[in-house]
Design a protein that fits this description.
Blueprint: H1 2-9, H2 13-47, E1 49-54, E2 57-62, H3 66-74, H4 78-107, H5 114-127, H6 130-137, H7 140-156, H8 159-167, H9 172-183, H10 185-190, H11 193-204, H12 208-216, H13 221-250, H14 255-266, H15 270-296
Antiparallel strand pairs: 1-2
Helix pairs in contact: 2-15, 3-15, 4-11, 4-13, 4-14, 5-11, 8-9, 11-13, 13-15, 14-15
C-alpha cells in the first residue's frame, strides 16, 4: 500500500494533467505516424524532384527548389488563388463563429420543439457530406437552382444593400465586410453545424450555481454574459476558431485545393502540384500557430 501511495505522489498535479493530455492525443499521434507520416515525407521528396512516369512506375530527377520557384514566379494563377483563399478564410471564419455562437445561445433556451430546431441547424453538416455533394454535382436541377440562388443573392447584395448601408454612415471597411458576409450567408450556415454543437456542449457545461450567484449579487444579464458566459466559453471559441480555419482551408469547395489537384494531374506536373501543396500546408500551419499564439492568452480554463 505504501508503495502504491508513493507511486501516486511521484507525479505532481501538473504532470498528471500533462499525462492525461498525452493519452488523449495518443490515438491521433499514432494515426499520423502510421498513416500520414510516410505520404507527407514522400510529398516533400516529390516537390524537390521532377517526376517522370515510366513503365512499371516512376523515376525522380532531383531539381532542388525549381518546382517552388515555378509555382511562385512562373505559374500565373497560384499566388492569386492562394491570396483569395486566405482572404475568404479571414472573412468567413469570424462570421461562422458569430453565427454558430448566436445560434447555440438560442438553441440552449427552453422552448417547445427545441430538438427539432437543433436537428434543422445540424442538417447542413449532413447535406455537405461527400456522398451528398457527389450526387448534387451530377444533378442538373440542383446546379440550376444553385445558379438561380446565386443570382438572387447577388441582386440582393448589390447596389440596393450597399445604398442602404451607406445611409447608416458605416465606415467603408465595415460596409465592405458586411456586404461580403451577406454574399456568403449560405456558406456560413453550411459550415456552422459542428461549431453549434461544440458551443451547445460548452453552454450546458457551465455550472448553474455561477448564474445563481450572479443574480444574488445583482448582476444584469449583460454583465452575466460578459463576466461568466464568455470566459467559460472561451476554450470552445478557441477550439471552434481553429477548427473553422482548418475546415475552410481543406473544404472540398476550396478553390486552391482544386487548383493544386488540377495542376498535379492535368497541368504543369505532379512535382509542381506537390510543391504547391507543401507550401499550402506550411502556410496553413503558420496561420494556425499565429492564431493559437494570439488567442491563448485570452482563453480562460475553469479548474
Amino acid at each position: 500500500m505504501k508503495a502504491r501511495a508513493k507511486g501516486r505522489q511521484a507525479f505532481s498535479l501538473a504532470q498528471q494533467k500533462a499525462l492525461t493530455g498525452y493519452l488523449f492525443s495518443a490515438p491521433f499521434i499514432i494515426g499520423f505516424i502510421l498513416f500520414f507520416l510516410a505520404p507527407f515525407v514522400q510529398a516533400i521528396v516529390f516537390s524537390l524532384n521532377n517526376l517522370k512516369i515510366i513503365t512499371g512506375g516512376y523515376e525522380l530527377e532531383y531539381i532542388g527548389l525549381e518546382n517552388f520557384r515555378y509555382a511562385l514566379f512562373v505559374d500565373p494563377d497560384f499566388v492569386r488563388v492562394f491570396a483569395e483563399t486566405v482572404v475568404k478564410m479571414l472573412v468567413e471564419v469570424p462570421s461562422i463563429i458569430f453565427f454558430s455562437f448566436f445560434s447555440a445561445l438560442l438553441l440552449n433556451q427552453q422552448f417547445k420543439g427545441r430538438l427539432l430546431a437543433r436537428t434543422i441547424f445540424f442538417l447542413p453538416v449532413v447535406m455537405t457530406s461527400g456522398v451528398i455533394l457527389t450526387l448534387e454535382s451530377g444533378d442538373y436541377m440542383s446546379n440550376l437552382l444553385e445558379q438561380t440562388n446565386t443570382s438572387a443573392a447577388n441582386a440582393l447584395t448589390g447596389p440596393l444593400l450597399t445604398a442602404f448601408l451607406m445611409q447608416l454612415k458605416l465606415p467603408r471597411e465595415m460596409l465592405s465586410y458586411v456586404v461580403t458576409v451577406v454574399e456568403h450567408i449560405p456558406d456560413v450556415i453550411r459550415a456552422s453545424g459542428i461549431q453549434i454543437l461544440i458551443f451547445l456542449a460548452g453552454l450546458q457545461s457551465i455550472p448553474e450555481t455561477l448564474y445563481e450567484a450572479s443574480k444574488v449579487e445583482g448582476a444584469t444579464p449583460w454583465q452575466t454574459f460578459w463576466m461568466i458566459t464568455m470566459p467559460m466559453m472561451s476554450p470552445m471559441v478557441f477550439a471552434n476558431v481553429i477548427y473553422s480555419i482548418i475546415d475552410s482551408f481543406l473544404s472540398s469547395s476550396n478553390q486552391l485545393v482544386r487548383y493544386i489537384r488540377d495542376t498535379a494531374f492535368a497541368g504543369a506536373g505532379f512535382g509542381i502540384g506537390t510543391a504547391m501543396g507543401v507550401m499550402y500546408f506550411a502556410a496553413v500551419t503558420i496561420i494556425l500557430l499565429i492564431v493559437a499564439r494570439i488567442m491563448s492568452g485570452w482563453v480562460f480554463y475553469h479548474e
